[in-house]
């Protein structure tokens, strides 16, 4: 079915030299986003010392879910710097589903550990902006997974929207979920636990780290799906 929406090609209007510089910078940014997501997950895991308490598993599970799995599940569609660039589109979609399933499992486990820790300590729930936005992020993640099912099985669900438009909706909602997760991670760094573990200049560095993968993901999705006006020929 023909679509009434066109999507902007990357690097349009650039000279050859500027184009290759632009592509090199994009590749470097994507690779750096992979390293940042993995590094942030490993450092949070080390700081948490998993197994020392019920709460110690919460930051581990959540960082694995959002800093690692969700980041990798989106960046694998990138043409620059993705370790899955050799795979077919169908293979990337399957890997995307695998990563997003891990997101749901790890996030649910992280929520469970947090609730159990609060109940054991007899502390009230949802008293901080981090916890409130975290619940919103979990709900949005579940809804986004349901939206992904609609993209994969539009005919089975008897949806009237064209597949291309469903993919646009899915990508846009995915970006919103990722940005929600990024803000939630940043707010976690204002918690008593994190500020007791990391102080001084290192704390400011950690505060900025989650923002870099978010910018790369935002750039990837907007370049791939941002509609533009048709250019008259």
Automatic annotation (TrEMBL):
<keyword id="KW-0813">Transport</keyword>
<feature type="domain" description="Cytochrome b561">
    <location>
        <begin position="24"/>
        <end position="228"/>
    </location>
</feature>
<dbReference type="GO" id="GO:0140575">
    <property type="term" value="F:transmembrane monodehydroascorbate reductase activity"/>
</dbReference>
<dbReference type="GO" id="GO:0016020">
    <property type="term" value="C:membrane"/>
</dbReference>
<keyword id="KW-0479">Metal-binding</keyword>
<feature type="transmembrane region" description="Helical">
    <location>
        <begin position="24"/>
        <end position="48"/>
    </location>
</feature>
<feature type="transmembrane region" description="Helical">
    <location>
        <begin position="202"/>
        <end position="221"/>
    </location>
</feature>
<keyword id="KW-0812">Transmembrane</keyword>
<feature type="transmembrane region" description="Helical">
    <location>
        <begin position="129"/>
        <end position="156"/>
    </location>
</feature>
<feature type="transmembrane region" description="Helical">
    <location>
        <begin position="54"/>
        <end position="77"/>
    </location>
</feature>
<dbReference type="Pfam" id="PF03188">
    <property type="entry name" value="Cytochrom_B561"/>
</dbReference>
<keyword id="KW-0349">Heme</keyword>
<dbReference type="InterPro" id="IPR045150">
    <property type="entry name" value="CYB561D1/2"/>
</dbReference>
<keyword id="KW-0472">Membrane</keyword>
<keyword id="KW-1133">Transmembrane helix</keyword>
<dbReference type="InterPro" id="IPR006593">
    <property type="entry name" value="Cyt_b561/ferric_Rdtase_TM"/>
</dbReference>
<keyword id="KW-0249">Electron transport</keyword>
<feature type="transmembrane region" description="Helical">
    <location>
        <begin position="97"/>
        <end position="117"/>
    </location>
</feature>
<dbReference type="GO" id="GO:0046872">
    <property type="term" value="F:metal ion binding"/>
</dbReference>
<feature type="transmembrane region" description="Helical">
    <location>
        <begin position="168"/>
        <end position="190"/>
    </location>
</feature>
<keyword id="KW-0408">Iron</keyword>
<protein>
    <recommendedName>
        <fullName>ascorbate ferrireductase (transmembrane)</fullName>
        <ecNumber>7.2.1.3</ecNumber>
    </recommendedName>
</protein>
<dbReference type="GO" id="GO:0140571">
    <property type="term" value="F:transmembrane ascorbate ferrireductase activity"/>
</dbReference>
